């Protein structure tokens, strides 16, 4: 077997171009799967035991090796940051759909009503992770801003919301609406808050 110009020539005379061979995709699938298992395990462990639970408990729950765990997350901060990203995935998708909604009030209302999608345990976990370090607190604020601020700014630019309304206040109101005990009560709270926030007409 001889190699010439990036090709392999076999004894049968057939030529195989090694430069165009597709790499084995199994390692990539394994990497993605292991990362997902670690994050899912961390979410379960932290919900049950708090965000100070040791890494070895997460490693055991994820059923991965020590080297695999630290290859994905060399530090606790890396793990906590990635888990925060994971927790807001659904809310981020809602915000992205709102960005493509033509009417600014509908976009803001959708984010306000549905952007706080975490249950009480996950919401508490997100806040606990954010409280871990100043860097994680800043990351939490950045994630929240990505979800809320675009639709808020659009509604304000259209004269539908007070210019003094800021992202933190909107998040506080969303959280207050979300803590109602039933879906019906959450919807009522959100409707009342939205009605109170909206200007009667563009200004």
TrEMBL record:
Record SUPFAM superfamilies: Homeodomain-like
Keyword Protease in record: no
DNA-binding region(s), residue ranges: 54-73
Region (Disordered): 1-34
Domain called HTH tetR-type: residue spans: 32-91
Gene3D superfamilies, per database record: Tetracycline Repressor, domain 2
Keyword Transcription on entry: yes
Lineage: Bacteria, Bacillati, Actinomycetota, Actinomycetes, Mycobacteriales
GO molecular function, one term: transcription cis-regulatory region binding
Protein name: TetR family transcriptional regulator
Top-level taxon: Bacteria
Keywords per UniProt: DNA-binding, Transcription, Transcription regulation
Alphabetical list of InterPro entries matching this protein: Homeodomain-like_sf, HTH-type_TetR-like_transc_reg, HTH_TetR
Polar residues bias: start-end ranges: 1-13
């Amino acid at each position: 077997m001889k190699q010439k110009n990036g090709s392999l020539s076999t004894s049968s005379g057939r030529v195989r171009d090694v430069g165009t061979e597709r790499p084995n995709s199994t390692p990539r699938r394994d990497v993605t799967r292991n990362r997902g298992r670690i994050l899912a395990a961390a979410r379960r462990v932290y919900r049950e035991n708090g965000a100070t639970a040791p890494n070895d408990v997460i490693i055991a729950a994820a059923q991965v090796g020590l080297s695999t765990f630290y290859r994905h997350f060399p530090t606790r901060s890396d793990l906590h940051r990635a888990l925060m990203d994971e927790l807001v995935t659904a809310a981020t998708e809602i915000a992205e759909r709102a960005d493509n909604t033509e009417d600014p009030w509908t976009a803001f209302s959708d984010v306000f009503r549905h952007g706080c999608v975490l249950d009480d345990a996950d919401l508490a976990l997100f806040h606990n992770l954010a409280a871990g370090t100043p860097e994680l607190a800043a990351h939490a604020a950045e994630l929240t801003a990505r979800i809320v601020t675009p639709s808020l700014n659009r509604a304000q630019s259209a004269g539908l919301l007070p210019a003094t309304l800021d992202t933190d206040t909107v998040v506080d109101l969303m959280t207050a609406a979300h803590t109602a005990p039933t879906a019906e009560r959450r919807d009522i709270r959100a409707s009342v808050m939205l009605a109170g926030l909206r200007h009667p007409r563009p200004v």
